[in-house]
């Protein structure tokens, strides 16, 4: 049965981003602090992970059949040059289809009716018997509010992002337990990072 899931790397003090969208070099350090090479569809984007992190990441990729993302993430990445790093079809939620898209050589489709339900329905059809991943905080929150999420996972990283407050008046973006549990359907799982940055599955 297809599951709809989302996830985030989160600091020990509960933040998924620092002030003004900073701190990602700390939150995603586990993508590059190991000895195991994990290739993606982009030759210049090979990850270097610990054995445990690599197994965790590969399992997620192998079980994912499609992704749903928002327009902001799509634009920020330049549409991943038409090929998402995990190599699956992508459904983009947007008000309008960007210029030059869709492209015959790129497995991207665009939902413009303003309904997250439409995007999830389309992604499930593309995913077959695999799962659908939801990327981007805004899109994930829409799914959560609509009761569409089946699972939320958290990769817990040994860093404190609240310390960044001293350099800015803006607060870091915090991942609220109340928000995570708003959907009765959604279960939560977490991966805890050790002091070396290697994640271990928590009970």
3D structure, described in words:
The protein has 203 residues and is of the alpha/beta class. It has one domain: Dihydrofolate Reductase, subunit A, CATH 3.40.430. Helix content is 23%, strand content 27%. It contains 6 helices and 12 strands. An 8-stranded mixed β-sheet has the order 7-6-5-8-1-9-11-12, with helices on both faces. Strand 5, helix 3 and strand 6 form a beta-alpha-beta unit. The protein starts with a strand and ends with a strand. The C terminus is likely disordered.
Q: What is the gist of this entry?
A:
This protein is of the alpha/beta class. The protein has one domain: Dihydrofolate Reductase, subunit A (3-Layer(aba) Sandwich).
What layout of secondary structure does this protein have?
Layout (H helix, E strand, L loop, with lengths): L3 E8 L3 E3 L6 H4 L8 E3 L8 E3 L1 H12 L1 E7 H6 L13 E4 L14 E4 L4 H12 L3 E4 L2 H9 L5 E7 L15 E2 L2 H4 L6 E7 L5 E3 L2
Parallel strand pairs: 1-8, 1-9, 5-6, 5-8, 6-7, 9-11
Antiparallel strand pairs: 2-10, 3-4, 11-12
């Amino acid at each position: 049965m297809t599951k709809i899931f989302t996830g985030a790397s989160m600091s020990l003090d509960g933040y998924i981003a620092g002030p003004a969208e900073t701190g990602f070099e700390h939150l995603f350090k586990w993508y590059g602090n190991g000895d195991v090479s994990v290739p993606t569809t982009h030759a210049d984007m090979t990850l270097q992970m610990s054995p445990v992190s690599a197994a965790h990441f590969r399992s997620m990729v192998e079980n994912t059949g499609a992704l749903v993302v928002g327009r902001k993430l799509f634009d920020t990445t330049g549409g991943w040059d038409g090929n998402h790093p995990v190599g699956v079809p992508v459904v983009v939620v947007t008000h309008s289809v960007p210029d030059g898209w869709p492209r015959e050589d790129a497995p991207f489709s665009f939902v413009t009716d303003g309904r997250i339900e439409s995007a999830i329905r389309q992604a499930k059809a593309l995913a077959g018997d695999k799962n659908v991943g939801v990327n981007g905080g805004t899109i994930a929150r829409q799914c959560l509010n609509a009761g569409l999420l089946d699972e939320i996972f958290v990769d817990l990283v040994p860093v404190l992002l609240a310390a960044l407050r001293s350099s800015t008046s803006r607060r870091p973006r915090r991942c609220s337990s109340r928000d995570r549990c708003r959907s009765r359907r959604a279960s939560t799982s977490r991966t805890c990072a050790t002091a070396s940055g290697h994640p271990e599955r928590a009970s």
